[in-house]
Amino acid sequence: MNTRFYNARILPLDGGAPMVSGELIVSGGRIAAMGEHCEFDGRLDREIDCGGNLLMPGFKNAHTHSGMTFLRSVADDLPLQRWLTEQVFPKEAQLTPDDVYVLTKLAILEYLTSGVTMMFDMYFYRDSIAQAAIDTGFRAALVGCANDYGGSAKETEEEYARFSKLNPLISYRLGFHAEYTTSYPLLKDLADMVQSLRQPFYTHLNETAAEVESCVRHSGMRTIEYLDSMGFFDYGGGGYHCVHVSAREMEILQLRGMTVVTCPGSNTKLASGVAPVYEYLKRGIPVAIGTDGPASNNCLDLFREMFLVTGLQKLNHGAEAVDAAEVLTMACRNGAYACGFDDCDCLAVGKQADLILIDLRQPNMQPLNNVEKNIVYSGSKQNVALVMIAGKILYERGEFFIGDDPERIYAEANRIIRGMK
Amino acid sequence: MNTRFYNARILPLDGGAPMVSGELIVSGGRIAAMGEHCEFDGRLDREIDCGGNLLMPGFKNAHTHSGMTFLRSVADDLPLQRWLTEQVFPKEAQLTPDDVYVLTKLAILEYLTSGVTMMFDMYFYRDSIAQAAIDTGFRAALVGCANDYGGSAKETEEEYARFSKLNPLISYRLGFHAEYTTSYPLLKDLADMVQSLRQPFYTHLNETAAEVESCVRHSGMRTIEYLDSMGFFDYGGGGYHCVHVSAREMEILQLRGMTVVTCPGSNTKLASGVAPVYEYLKRGIPVAIGTDGPASNNCLDLFREMFLVTGLQKLNHGAEAVDAAEVLTMACRNGAYACGFDDCDCLAVGKQADLILIDLRQPNMQPLNNVEKNIVYSGSKQNVALVMIAGKILYERGEFFIGDDPERIYAEANRIIRGMK
C-alpha cells in the first residue's frame, strides 16, 4: 500500500527541521519520501489532498491501563487509595480475557480520535491486549504488572521473550505494578531478573505522598531510592507519575538515564499532586506524557494532557515555564523512545509512518499565527482528521477502519459493566 | 420554524428533573413540549432522529473578549502584565470596528464547536460585537469596559439604554474594565451611574495578586472591599476571575448576591493562580465559567474549562471536591443568570430553545455509566453534534449555518494580524 499526501504542511518534529509545505509518500509502512516535491517510482494506491492541513507525528500515550474503560464514570470524586480498594479491585477481579480484549479495543477507538498512535499499556491479560492492538493495527508496548495479587519474575521473563518478537506493532518492557503492592520476596526475584536480562525497567513511581511515606517507614528510603538500591534501574527505564520526588531521587533519575511519564489529568482528578516537570526539564530528564487509565482520568485525550503539562507548571513556576515546543517533544518523541519504538518518533525518510493529519481549517486553529502553540494551547480531538499507523489509515474524518464495528464494541462494554456485582 | 427532536435522552438540568428518554418540540424559538411523548398541533418543519443521543442546555461562556481571536498564539508564555503591555495593547490599538466584527464571528464559530450558546463579552466596538451576534444568530451579553484609555459613565449609560432593547439575542450589563486601569474620577462617575440606574455591575476582580496589592497601596483596601465601599455592588453583579480574594471579600460577594465568573484556563496559562471555587460553593456564592479571551487561554472550549474547574479544586481540596453535577450547573445555568438570560438556563416548556445535542456514540462517552460525569470528565468538542439557539440550528455535524462562509472569516482574521505592526 503506497500513499501520497500532498498539499500539506509538514511538521517533522525531528528536533531540528522546520515546517515545510509539500508532500509525503508512504510505502511499506514507512516514510519513503518527504519534501516540497518528491520522486517516487512505485505505483500509488491512494493520493490524499491535505488541503493545506498539517501532517505531524502521532501522539504517544506513554502510560495507560486501556482495559479500564469499563470503569469510566463508575467511581469518581474519591481519593486514590479508596478508589482502588472500594471500586477498582473488586470489579477488576470479575474481568475475563475476552472482556479485556474488547475493552482495550474501546480505548484504541478513543486514542485514534485524539491522534494517538501508540500506547504503553500496563494491564493484566496481556495476550488480550496484544491481540486487540494487532487486530486493529494499533501500536502497543506492553509492560508487566506483577504484584502480590498475581504475576511473578518467571512469568515476566517469559512474556519478555514471547512478546518482544510477536509482531512489529508490539514491544515489551520489563516492569511491575508498584512498590506499595509488592512485598520483598517478589521484589527480590524481579530485581534478579533485571540483572539477568539487563533491560530497562518501568513501574508506578512516587505517585502519592502516602505511598512514599509508607516506603520510608518500612525501608528507611523513599521509593525511587529503595528500588534503585535493589538495582532495578541499573539499565535505565522509567517511572509513571513521579509526583512526589526528592532532589536525591531526581539525581537517581538523571544518573540512570530514566524517563518520567507524567500523567497530569489523572494526578489532578485523583488529587495526587503536580509532578515537578519543570525541574525534570531543567535537569535534562526526558519527560513523556500518559493519560493513565480511563477510570482515573477519565478520558484518553492527549490534547487535554498537553495543556495540563504546561498549564500546571506555569501555575507553579510562572507563565514562561514549559513552552509548546517542549510539550510536543514530550508528546510525540519521548514516549516512543520509552517504549523502544525509536523509529516512530518523528517524520523523516525511513521512519515508520505513524502520523496524523490535523485539520487547521477549524476556528480553534485560526488565525495561523503559530502552529505548535495552536496545537498545544488550542488543539482538540475535533482537529484530528486522519490517523495512520505503520502506513495504514485507522481513522479518517470520524470513521474507524479497525476491522470491527464500534457499535458492537460499545454494546459489549456496556454489557460487561452491567453484568458486574 | 417548528422542530421535533425524537429518540433522545434529555438532561433538563432544571435543578430537579431526572434524565428522560423521549422527545422535545421547539416552536417560535422556545421549547413547546418535552417528555416521553409530546402533543403538538402545529406543522413540523423538521424532525430530527437523535439516535439515542443527549439533548441538554447549551454551555454559557460567562467571560470572554471574543475579538481577541487575532492574537491567538501570537504572544504566549508571558505573565499577565508584560503580556498586556508588550503585546496586547499595542496591537489592539490598530483594530477597526470591521476587524472586531469579523474577529467576533471567528470566536462565535469556535463557541459553536464547543456547544456554547451564549457569550458574556467584554470588548470594545460593541456595536460590531452586537452585529456579529445578531447576524450569526448567537446570544450575547455585552458589558462596558470603560477605563482610563477610553469610555465614560455617560457612554456606558447610553449603551445600557440602547443595547438593552436592541434585539432579543442581546443583553447589556453595566461594567468597566478593572480597578487597576481606572483612576478615581472615572470610578466615581461610574459609581454614581450605578446608583442612578440601580443595576448589577460587572468587572475584572482580583485576578492577580499584584493588582490587589496595588489597590491596597493606594486605597488601604483590597479591590472588592474598595469597589464595594464606593457602592458598585449595591445592586449585585459579579466579578470575572476572583482568584485572590480574602475572607472579608467573600463576605461581600455573599452579602451582595454576586456571581463569580471563574476562568481556570486563562488563570492557569497566565500563572495568575487558582480561584477558591471550593470556598465559593461552600458559602453559596454562585459560580459561572468563562474562557476569558482567546489570546490568554488560548481556546474557547467549555469542556476544557469544566475539567479544570473541578480538577484544580481537587488538587487543592481532595478528590471529593466539586462534583460533575455542580460543574454542569455552573456551565449551563449560572452564566445565563449572570447575563439576565433567565429563560436560557435549562430545558423546560416555555424556555428558550438554546440547546445542544451531545453525541454519545463516541468512544469517550462509552460505556454509558453516568452521563453527567462523562460530559464533565471525558467530554470534548468532538461530541457536539448540533447547536440550536433561539430555535435556530447554527451548527450541525461539523457544518456552520451562520449566514457567512467560515473560510472567508479565517482569511480575514489572517489578513488582520498579518497587516499589523
Architecture overview:
The structure is a homodimer of 421-residue chains. With 421 residues, chain A is α/β, with parallel strands linked by helices. The first copy, chain A, has 2 domains: 3-57 and 347-400, Roll (Urease, subunit C, domain 1); 59-342, Metal-dependent hydrolases (TIM Barrel, Alpha-Beta Barrel). The first copy, chain A, is 37% helix and 21% strand. The first copy, chain A, contains 14 helices and 17 strands. The first copy, chain A, has helices at 80-92, 97-113, 126-136, 153-163, 184-197, 209-219, 223-229, 247-255, 264-269, 277-282, 302-317, 324-338, 371-378, 406-418, and strands at 3-10, 20-27, 30-35, 46-49, 54-57, 59-64, 116-121, 139-143, 170-178, 201-205, 237-241, 259-262, 287-289, 355-358, 384-389, 392-396, 399-400. In chain A, the strands form 2 sheets. In chain A, strands 1, 2, 3, 4, 5, 14, 15, 16 and 17 form a 9-stranded mixed beta sheet that branches. In chain A, β7 (116-121), α3 and β8 (139-143) form a beta-alpha-beta unit. In chain A, α4 runs parallel beside α5 (184-197), α11 (302-317) packs across α12 (324-338) and α12 crosses α13 (371-378). The longest helix of chain A is centred in the first third of the chain and has 17 residues, at 97-113. Chains A and B meet through α2, α9, α11, α13 and α14 of A and α2, α9, α11, α13 and α14 of B.
